[in-house]
């Protein structure tokens, strides 16, 4: 029974944290992007105001839409984004449901918010939204390959180093894969770090991977027909997913905590590690989302597939070979 | 714990996940309920946005199932151009491919 209460309490706590932090990250992203373009930019809390305003606006359901599906998808997008958080460790805090799901489950759960967006787009009954939904589906298939390669490679390398439960999220956080590899393995992990840095904006449909929304050609594409509280809920889902995706990347490749270096214990260690984790999330979002979107234009959907499957898929394969070579070079080193 | 599935490496409990997603759905629904629900039906508001253009006949703008993965197939066109002709529909060809695959796997397993 305690697990059920943990799920309930964890959901409320993590949802509050991720919605607040995710919207703040959006505010920081917009402010930093503005400063990079020599503009002042909006206040940091502007995304909170935007969402509040959306909830006060009319919630239009298009004539061609399938109303129940159109309304249900924003709710499912937010709920599934929150559910991911229940399986992720934050700093030195263990996942709420860590004993009941592993990294493969998280890999699958990351698909659900995007699927909700796709179904919502198709349910809109609008040509722009339909094209956007089709692009989102192709994008999903594209970035799943390098993401899966990264996750499996890291878990396999931990297993080869005789680390117990290599697919557990807690193991990934507590046993940095960098500690078990030699020079070849470090090179492979650097490659996987680059791969994850490119998967992150794809997962979040940010420039240069924003072809499903494509403001300039599809007028918002997948979200073109959404307004009011439905659009507000999609904004909240995006904020939560931003935290989840960045946290996932950190757990895989940048998992270190601050407390062991500072010699902190108990509550002080928990707080220090949580703050450090939040700073790492901010760093990942700043690099993978803000800087990248300021430097690049939107890829065509065919270029997205080519980049993820051929370039990053190829880099992933190279990383696997290097990790295999590393295993024979430093067997079981830990 | 009831319902926990283990693969030898990984673990998943669908029942616990259902509890988590149910709590998340309820919370999301509560947030959704806080928003405005009204709109003016049967007005210009509900017409699909098409940059001011008139809405074409519905069958003309819907994406067919065969085009669902366009972008994917277009990007990997050189691969599909080679692969599609191999699907000749002749059983002898498929058995030959199966045998070639089995031989390669056999060699890999023996060498491995």
What report would you give on this structure?
The complex is a heterodimer of chains A (334) and B (112). Chain A has 334 residues and is mostly helical. Chain A has 13 helices and no strands. In chain A, 72% of the residues lie in helices and 0% in strands. Chain A is globular and about 60 Å long. The model of chain A has no long low-confidence stretch (mean pLDDT 88). Chain B has 112 residues and is mainly alpha-helical.
Instruction: Estimate the mean pLDDT confidence of chain A.
Output: 88
Unreliable runs of chain A: none
Structural class of chain A: mainly alpha
Number of β-strand runs of chain B: 2
Radius of gyration of chain A (CA) equals 20 Å
* SSE pattern of chain A, N- to C-terminal: HHHHHHHHHHHHH
Reported for the largest beta sheet of chain A, the result is: none
Q: Give average pLDDT of chain B, whole number.
A: 83
Could you give the topology of this structure?
The complex is a heterodimer of chains A (334) and B (112).
Chain A: H1 2-36, H2 46-56, H3 67-85, H4 103-109, H5 111-123, H6 127-160, H7 169-174, H8 183-203, H9 215-218, H10 228-253, H11 259-262, H12 266-295, H13 301-329
Helix pairs in contact in A: 1-10, 1-12, 2-10, 3-5, 3-10, 5-6, 6-8, 6-13, 8-10, 8-12, 8-13, 10-12
Chain B: E1 5-6, E2 11-12, H1 14-33, H2 58-61, H3 72-75, H4 77-86, H5 91-111
Antiparallel strand pairs in B: 1-2
């Amino acid at each position: 029974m305690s697990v059920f209460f943990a799920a309930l309490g964890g959901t409320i706590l993590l949802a509050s944290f991720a919605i607040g932090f995710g919207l703040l990250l959006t505010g920081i992203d917009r402010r930093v992007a503005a400063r990079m373009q020599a503009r002042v930019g909006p206040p940091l809390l502007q995304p909170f105001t935007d969402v509040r305003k959306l909830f006060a606006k009319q919630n239009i359901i298009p004539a061609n839409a399938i109303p129940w599906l159109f309304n249900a998808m924003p709710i499912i997008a937010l709920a599934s984004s929150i559910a991911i958080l229940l399986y992720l460790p934050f700093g030195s805090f263990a996942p709420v449901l860590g004993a009941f799901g592993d990294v493969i489950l998280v890999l699958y759960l990351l698909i659900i918010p995007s699927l909700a967006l796709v179904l919502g787009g198709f349910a809109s009954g609008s040509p722009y939204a339909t094209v956007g939904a089709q692009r989102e589906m192709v994008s999903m298939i594209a970035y799943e390959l390098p993401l899966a390669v990264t996750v499996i490679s890291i878990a396999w390398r931990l297993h080869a180093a005789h680390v117990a439960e290599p697919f557990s999220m807690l193991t990934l956080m507590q046993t940095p894969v960098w500690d078990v590899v030699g020079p070849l393995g470090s090179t492979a992990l650097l490659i996987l770090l680059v791969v994850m840095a490119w998967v992150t904006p794809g997962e979040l449909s940010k420039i240069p991977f924003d072809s499903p929304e494509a403001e300039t050609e599809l007028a918002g594409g997948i979200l073109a027909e959404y307004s009011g509280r439905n659009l507000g809920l999609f904004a909240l889902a995006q904020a939560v997913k931003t935290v989840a995706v960045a946290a996932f990347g950190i757990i895989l490749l940048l998992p270190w905590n601050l407390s062991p270096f500072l010699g902190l214990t108990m509550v002080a260690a928990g707080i220090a590690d949580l703050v450090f984790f939040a700073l790492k999330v901010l760093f990942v979002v700043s690099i993978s989302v803000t800087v990248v979107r300021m430097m690049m234009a939107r890829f065509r959907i065919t270029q997205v597939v080519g980049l993820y499957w051929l370039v990053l898929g190829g880099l992933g394969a190279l990383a696997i070979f290097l990790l295999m070579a590393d295993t024979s070079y430093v067997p079981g080193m830990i | 714990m009831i319902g926990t599935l283990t693969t030898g490496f990984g673990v998943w409990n669908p029942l616990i996940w259902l509890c988590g997603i149910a709590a998340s759905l309820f919370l999301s629904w509560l947030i959704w309920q806080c928003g405005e629900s009204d709109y003016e039906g049967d007005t210009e508001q509900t017409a699909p946005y098409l940059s001011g253009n008139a809405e074409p006949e519905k069958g003309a703008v819907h994406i067919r199932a065969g085009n669902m993965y366009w972008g994917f197939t277009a990007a990997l066109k050189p691969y599909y151009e080679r692969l599609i002709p191999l699907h000749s529909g002749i059983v002898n060809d498929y058995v030959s491919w199966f045998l070639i695959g089995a031989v390669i796997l056999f060699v890999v397993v023996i060498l491995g």
